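Known limitations

Structure tokens in this collection are predictions and should be treated as such. Users comparing against experimental data should check residue numbering before alignment. To illustrate the layout, the record for SRSO17 transposase is reproduced below. The input appears on top and the generated tokens appear beneath it.
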Amino acid sequence: MKTKKNPAVAADISVAARRWPHRLNDLIHTISDRLVRPETQHTAHDLLGGLLAPLARKNCWTLAKHAGHPNPHHFQHLLSRARINEVGLVEDLRTYARTHPGEQDAVLILDETGDLKKGTETVGVQRQYTGTAGRIENAQVAVYLAYATPAGHALVDHRLYLPRSWTNDPQRLQTAGVPEHVAFATKPALAEQMITAALAAHTPTAWVAADEVYGRNPHLRRTLEEHRLGYVMAVARTERLMLPCGPATVGELAVLAPGTAWQRLSARPGAKGQRFYDWALIDAEPAPSGCRWALIRRHRTTGELAFYRCYAPEMVPLKRLVAVAGRRWRVEESFQQGKGLAGLDEHQVRTWCSWHRWSLFAMLAYAFLAAMAAIEARQSPSMAELIALTCNEIAHLLNALFATDPDIEHVLGWSLFRRSHQANARQCHYRRQAFQEL
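Generated tokens:
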């Protein structure tokens, strides 16, 4: 694959890519105060490099082999026994994740994801529902907080969910190294902890988005309203609201809404066109300081309905609430890319400390890719014939260009071909959608 058609673009990519390893070193320098000892910093650098590598499996053994270590002991020590300021590391992650995508129009997004496990020894594991499998499985579930702006998104905090089968068993907690102060907490309670920590760290945001697990929790909603944070959170069709005319479920409101109540708006642009739905906004009971609504989304072809509780400290247009609702899907992309590119779900650790540290370093590795994508999008002019560099493409180039004796022209040629092909496909989808809208 040659680059003769786009030599200038290929040269720009090559120059940009050569900055990425230095920026990874800058990230290590940013968190170095949290890692205390120089050898811990070196091991953390090797761990981040391995998490970004295209390995079939990512665990201490495979990462140690990739880094040239004689055994996995350095990584195992880093995850379980090394002196690390984990609270400070989370603060650095939050700061880093918002520095490059920027602070304009930021939304915090709550969601959980599960990792399927075998056995019963891994901390937090039990048979429970996880969206990863779409059913009840033996799994470990954690709640994550994502930070998203139009320029990018990354995971910035996490909490492991401990079921009552664990918190009611002190011996099991002690074996897994769970701190004594940790008690049972619901997923919304864990979400509230992360929101409170983010606000205490002055994270710039005015909105929170979440799915039904969090939207149906009145205590979490009340906490957000007390902080005057707007929210758009999904609820079930059986969710009851107090209206001026009396109580009603959101499902009943969808049936009673007149045709004039529905507006066609795009939740956000996608690879195959704008994501248009029909939306209806209905005033709900007034808040002590602010406005509350029920938001209903209707699929244009199937008629499938989705429901949301909404709040804002002041009146906002429907378009703004729709934009926040559409931003929620960024956390799904963060999970997919964090797992596929940074090994978020590939840990083979059993204890509390090791799980938290592995997840933190995986989130840092993914935040690095998101930061590089935001930087290149800001520094490189947009081109209609090429899509912007994505996290996937940056990870591919990072490994291909810095492999032993790479064929740079071949690597860049294929990168340009992929981005050109994806840009053509996107343009075709948008033209077809525009034609269908006529």
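For this record: Residues 176 and 351 are 5 Å apart (CA to CA). The mean pLDDT is 90. Please report discrepancies through the issue tracker.
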